[in-house]
Task: inverse folding
């Protein structure tokens, strides 16, 4: 195999600085469009064919063939969580800052950072060899945090341009030694909004004995979906869920997480039910979830009043054999059976089924083996993790294997203030792609 080329650190930082300076808060159309243009320009500079699909949200596609016939698709997202109060940051969130070997800014650990690392890995390969060892396709999603609502149609409209032999994501956790985990799949996603209506307009609190309070109504409906014991109470929810296979159990028992580091960085004292070790790993990998993301009433006020409406947003992360369509119907039937016909369910845009590739698949093994040259050890292979990615959209259209290797660390704070990542980790993320591209070209 040829000697891997070095990455140009200064160019990587300059590229990431430009990306971080352009806000791309989830759902902000103008900012997302401007970010898509910036991403397209960086990919065009690699000599790639580039297309911007406006969406909304926009998706940027880029393709360049390589020396071999093999083509690797790289899935990235560029929408980002809001920065929150700027006073909580040590540096301005949209101005890349470097301190003690780490880079700070919104998107550096998830989204823009992994993308920049892969762009400059491709640049290093082209600069060294004059061409890519294997073809590369970039799919950069402006709606990743919304469930990728425009991605499926984008892939359907550009099938030949996006065609690839394998797909790699850039999301995931690390083990206790700091090595990224290699995921051979990802959980699926369903997002819904529940709403309950009350009076035509807010009323004084004294009306409570006479009229139904929509906030209470919604709260009671939610309590019928998930209980205090964390059990999801929708009949049939677990019916299609299989436990891990013998081989998967063996792999899961070998995973060690940095549990003290997690708890410290998350500001928590313990995990649910005191879980630890393999029980925690198995729960994150094999269990579906039901998460309450937000709950609001209209109008939002601290006044004593009877609100006119209440809404809540739920997200479900799904495991193999679970279907977003089937679950949406189970949820509606369950609330109807429990007497909540008046609670409206709106399925939010986006969502997708779970994805799973056999851990013995050649591509998955290549991703794992690429870690040996970068991290000194083969990356541990895990069936899926505590995240959802739209990898199944690629599987359905290309019948290709998928994997994901993350960049962020437990304390990187991609949703909070002071999001950061060590510069060396960015470089390693790029080096992993270089090793993988060279291996795929053999």
Result:
């Amino acid at each position: 195999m040829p000697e891997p080329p070095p990455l140009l650190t200064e160019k990587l930082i300059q590229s990431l600085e430009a990306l971080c300076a352009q806000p791309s808060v989830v759902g902000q159309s103008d900012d997302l469009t401007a970010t898509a243009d910036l991403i397209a320009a960086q990919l065009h500079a690699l000599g790639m064919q580039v297309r911007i699909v406006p969406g909304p949200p926009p998706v940027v596609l880029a393709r360049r063939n390589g020396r071999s016939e093999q083509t690797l698709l790289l899935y990235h997202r560029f929408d980002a969580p809001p920065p929150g109060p700027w006073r909580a940051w040590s540096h301005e969130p949209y101005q890349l800052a470097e301190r003690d070997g780490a880079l700070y800014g919104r998107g550096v650990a998830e989204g823009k950072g992994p993308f920049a690392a892969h762009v400059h890995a491709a640049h290093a390969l082209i600069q060294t060899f004059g061409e890519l060892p294997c073809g590369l396709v970039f799919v950069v999603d402006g709606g990743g945090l919304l469930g990728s609502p425009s991605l499926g149609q984008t892939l359907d409209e550009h099938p030949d341009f996006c065609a690839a032999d394998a797909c790699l994501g850039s999301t995931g956790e690390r083990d206790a030694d700091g090595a990224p985990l290699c995921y051979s799949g990802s959980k699926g996603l369903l997002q819904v909004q529940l709403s309950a209506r009350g009076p035509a307009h807010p009323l004084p609190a004294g009306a409570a004995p006479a009229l139904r309070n929509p906030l209470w109504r919604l709260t009671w409906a939610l309590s019928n979906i998930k209980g205090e014991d964390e059990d999801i109470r929708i009949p049939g929810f677990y019916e299609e869920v299989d436990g891990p296979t013998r081989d998967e159990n063996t792999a899961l028992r070998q995973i060690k997480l940095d549990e003290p580091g997690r708890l410290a960085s998350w500001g928590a004292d313990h995990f649910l039910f005191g879980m630890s070790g393999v029980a925690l790993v198995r729960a994150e990998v094999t269990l579906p979830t039901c998460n309450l993301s937000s709950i609001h009433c209209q109008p939002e006020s601290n006044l004593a009043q009877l609100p006119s409406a209440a809404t809540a947003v739920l997200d479900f992360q799904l495991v193999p054999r679970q279907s977003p369509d089937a679950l949406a119907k189970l949820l509606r039937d369950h609330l109807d059976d429990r007497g909540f016909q008046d609670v409206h369910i709106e399925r939010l845009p986006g969502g997708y089924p779970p994805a799973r590739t056999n851990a013995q698949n050649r591509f998955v093994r290549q991703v794992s083996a690429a870690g040996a040259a970068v991290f000194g050890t083969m990356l541990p292979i895990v069936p899926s993790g505590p995240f959802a990615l739209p990898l199944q959209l690629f599987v359905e259209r290309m019948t290709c294997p998928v994997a994901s290797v993350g960049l962020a660390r437990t304390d990187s704070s991609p949703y909070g203030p002071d999001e950061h990542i060590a510069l060396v980790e960015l470089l390693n993320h790029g080096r992993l792609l270089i090793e993988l591209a060279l291996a795929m070209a053999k």
Summary: The first strand starts at residue 49 and ends at 53. The chain is about 35% helix and 20% strand. The mean pLDDT is 96.
